[in-house]
Amino acid sequence: MSGAHHYNPDDPPVLEVEDLSVDIKVPAGTLHAVNKVSFSVRPGETLSLVGESGCGKSITSLAIMRLLPKAARLSASKIIFDGQDLAALSEKQMARLRGNRIGMIFQDPMTSLNPVYRIGDQLEEIYLRHKGGGRREARERAEYLLEKIGIINPTQRLTQFPHQLSGGLRQRMMIAMMLMCDPKLIIADEPTTALDVTVQVQILQLLRSLQEEFRMALILITHNLGVVARMADHVAVMYAGQVVEKGSSADVFRHPTHPYTRGLLECIPHPGQSATRNKLGSIPGIVPSLVGRIDGCTFRNRCNYAFGDCATAQVGLRDVEDGHSYRCLLPPETFAAGKLEKA
Ligand SMILES: Nc1ncnc2c1ncn2[C@@H]1O[C@H](COP(=O)(O)OP(=O)(O)O)[C@@H](O)[C@H]1O
Ligand code: SF4
Ligand SMILES: [Mg+2]
Q1: pLDDT score for 329
Q2: Which of 22, 25, 31, 239 is the best mutation target for the ligand 1 pocket, counting ligand atoms within 8 Å of the beta carbon and taking the most?
Q3: Angle between helices 167-179 and 197-214 (to 10 degrees)
Q4: Is the sign of the CA dihedral 64, 70, 72, 77 positive or negative?
Q5: SS3 state at 218
Q6: Of 125, 150, 158, 273, most Cβ neighbours within 10 A?
Q7: Quick check: 196 pLDDT over 90?
Q8: Inter-residue contact 24 to 10 (CB < 8 Å)
Q9: Which protein residue has the closest C-alpha to ligand 2 atom 3?
């Protein structure tokens, strides 16, 4: 399990999201990509959003950043970042926040690095744009950060172009770029998925130690449960646009309760197997269409426990224990230890 708790549970959250929904207009109708998702994350804390491809992880993070596709409509009762209501910010204010107080890391660093500029110039540019200091100061910070992220010979590296770097090094540069402005929150969407396993581990360890040092909150999006186990303080398991289980990762791994979570955990390979096989999605069946009205439990076509009401009832979150909840009509006793074989 993770070396968790670099955060103080009494600190106010850096980000608080309540009932976030995103609907996307598609030719067939309205696609409910994200459906009333709520979570919060504190300074120094790592929250993992985990789930199969298409369950709404990326749209959730893009909604927070207000980087949604044009056809998408966002609603939320709360998106509070550092005491500020993000929904109330103008586009200009929002642009000032992005890459400055909220840093983002994506799966493919080339989406954020500009191929025609030297790394050093790109790092400095970010700093000058957001912090407004001088070029010398920017260069010093860039060199300092490159050393921090374990890059040998930083002065020379800063003169290189993105294509001259390996995938792992590029992702390190992305991390340095994000750190130029001292963000309070990092949103990392599958930051290591494209990398070799050994490099993945290095990058995750790096993120973890930087996060601890700079006391940043981290939202780590992944479909890899091994990554969650290694990194997360809290976890929100997403399915079909909803959070179906959430809690501390210790609680969720110890007492997985939603049939979907239990299915996922059964798919975790045993020690010795390659970490790339920690992929989700080996539960029989597919995610239902999210277009049009959704009634009942979205997991029912894959659930061994499904019964009549699951097709029609409103399924809310219920508690397993303090701070650990799941979305299902059945009580937690149904899923007590020893009954795992049924799921
Ligand atoms: N630009 C888009 N236009 C229409 N539908 C989209 C778009 N982006 C994502 N979606 C849909 O929204 C849902 C959630 O997608 P996404 O957040 O990307 O999933 P994840 O990141 O968990 O793999 C999926 O059904 C996906 O097909
Ligand atoms: S509500 Fe019904 S279908 Fe959904 S997870 Fe619970 S038992 Fe399964
Ligand atoms: Mg995604």
Answers
A1: 98
A2: 31
A3: 10
A4: positive
A5: strand
A6: 158
A7: no
A8: no
A9: 300
DSSP 342: G
Which of the ligands is closest to the CA of residue 61?
1
Nearest-angstrom CA–CA distance, 110 and 44 = 27
- Residues 277-295: tens digit of each pLDDT: 444 446 788 888 999 998 9
**pLDDT tier for residue 81 given thresholds of 50, 70 and 90:** very high
CB 275, CB 204: distance < 8 Å? no
- For residues 163-189, one letter each, b for 16 or more C-beta atoms within 10 angstroms of the residue's C-beta and e for the rest, the string is eebebbbbbbbbbbbbbbbebbbbbbb
Residue 342 confidence (pLDDT): 43
Count CA atoms closer than 13 A to 140's CA, side-chain side. Answer: 5
The partner residues of 32 in beta bridges, in order of sequence, read 23
Whether the CB of 310 sits within 6 Å of ligand 2: yes
Mean pLDDT, the chain, rounded, equals 89
Question: What are the extents of the domains in the chain?
Answer: 41-67+90-101+181-342
Rounded CA-CA distance 103/178 in Å is 5
pLDDT of residue 341: 46
> In the CATH hierarchy, which fold is given to the domain comprising 41-67+90-101+181-342?
Rossmann fold (3.40.50)
- Residue 175: closest CA among 201, 139, 207: 207
For residues 154 and 118, give the distance between their C-alpha atoms in angstroms, rounded to a whole number.
13
Cβ of 259 below 6 Å from ligand 1? no
Ligand 2 atom nearest the C-alpha of 300 is 3
Tell me if 123 CB under 6 Å of ligand 2.
Answer: no
Helix (H, G, I), strand (E, B) or coil at 35: strand
Indicate the length of the chain as a whole number.
343
pLDDT digits (tens, 9 = 90+) for 227-257: 898 899 999 999 999 999 999 999 999 999 9
Q: Cα–Cα distance between 263 and 194 in angstroms, integer? A: 25
